[in-house]
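Homework help thread (please don't just give me the answer)

Our assignment gives two proteins as sequence + structure token strings and asks us to describe the second one. The first is just a warm-up. Here they are:
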Amino acid sequence: MMTTRLYLPKWAWQTIRMFNREFLDGAEGHDLRVRKALLTLALTPNSPTVTTVQSKLGVTTSVWYRTASGWVDIARAEEGDGSFTGHIHVSGIPGSGGRDIVAVYKLRRACGPDHQRRRLVGARHASHCPPRSAVSPPEATPLPRQ
């Protein structure tokens, strides 16, 4: 099985985990297996490139990558009270009315800019933090395929 390693900010992983949890909530048996397969298809990258963009004042940051079924776009926005929200747009899973699923979550803690490298396989993630020197630059970052 070929996997792609992604460098994503901690807040992006937190947003993906919250999305996974909400998407799988209440599903059992066959429905749970179908939803996990759909998450795998919709969230697993087919390209080793992740694009990151930050606003001039650092109020918003966005990352996106391509999957077999479309795109995953994740953004972090700072609210007026200093808290952060994570926004995720998944084009590979049809939501109500056939539109892409878009969800917003209140991030539990303000995640810093450090990146984490993870192997994305469905709803499960194996974690590994790279050394500080291996943190990818904010521009598009090609990553190794294994």
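The one we have to describe:
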Amino acid sequence: MNETTDQESTKDGLLKRLNLHTSLPPLKRRHTQLEMELPDDFYLPGKETKDNIDRLITENSDEFADEQEVFELEIICAQCEGASLFRTTSLFEKVQCPHCSSKFRIPIETEKFIYDKHIYESDFINIFRAQNKANDYYGDVLVYDKINPSSTLDDIKDILTKYSLLEVEHYLTPIHYTEDETAYYFQRDNAPYRMNLYLDKFGALPKDQVALTLSQISSIAAHLSDHKCYGAFLASDVMLQLNGNSVLCDYGLREDILSRMKISRGIPAYFLAPEAVYHKVHTRASAVYSLGILAIAFITGKYPFIETKMDDIPNERLTFLDEFKDKKLPAFLRLMLDQDPANRPNFTQCKEYFARLHRQNMRLA
């Protein structure tokens, strides 16, 4: 099976297509009310998947191909309940309520959801912030593109049931599920501060926060390992609440879903332990390695690995370990990235180490 995607996924291409037509008709008022989070600067411009875009394009969209379409919407502000007209040509454009100055993004409506922010994109997965039109639930929507059009939720029912029943503190489990002919849609809660967007915009996490965040993630992962939940750690899996506590999401569930869908390259190799790259199996040891990668990204502001070619990965990893002493990183991370899975620490040891590092950072602050 060709596991790469032919879908157009670049921001410019997607925005160009969305500018042609959407299900929100131009020059026609439409009432839309969205709950809004506290204003922040951590979010980046969004984009839609190709399949969702196709569902928004009508049969006569070709007549708009050479002109930029303007959409006019009446939106009721969730803060002051004042109604205002907005004109836009861009997907998820950030606007300001003229009545109370609250800022929010103009939504895009599909048959199932009202999307107002894009969070993460990969070849087979997109994450949006959205309102579920069927039940008015407002949270994150994980969109998994189907490889096999005949697949149904019944094919992954056992996985969804397992994760829905998990009771692990600060792990966000899926709450609602639906599907159409092209994708699965899973909805869950979120938190205000998303570490993938923070990392992209600001780089390294603050020194007084980074080790505490990693300790809390390690603690959540330790409890998940009791339920045999393993995977890779992506920055998009980590969010911070307003009080600074970390929450974890999608880790484990994503890997189980991709495995059931027979997608072996759904997660880029530079997030994975070598054995997970080559054998496509996630274990506690491979998860610890992946957490080590994320820890370096949080501490330095960039990921340590970039190679995706199978033949070049071993040399990049070995070179990094050989030069580790020159990188001014905590020595414990070297253990997390050990080539031998048996030599890596467990999550409880990671939690304790990062807790000590946090206390040390606070003393030096």
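TA reply:
I won't write it for you, but here's a hint about the kind of observation we're looking for: The chain has two domains: 11-188, 193-364.
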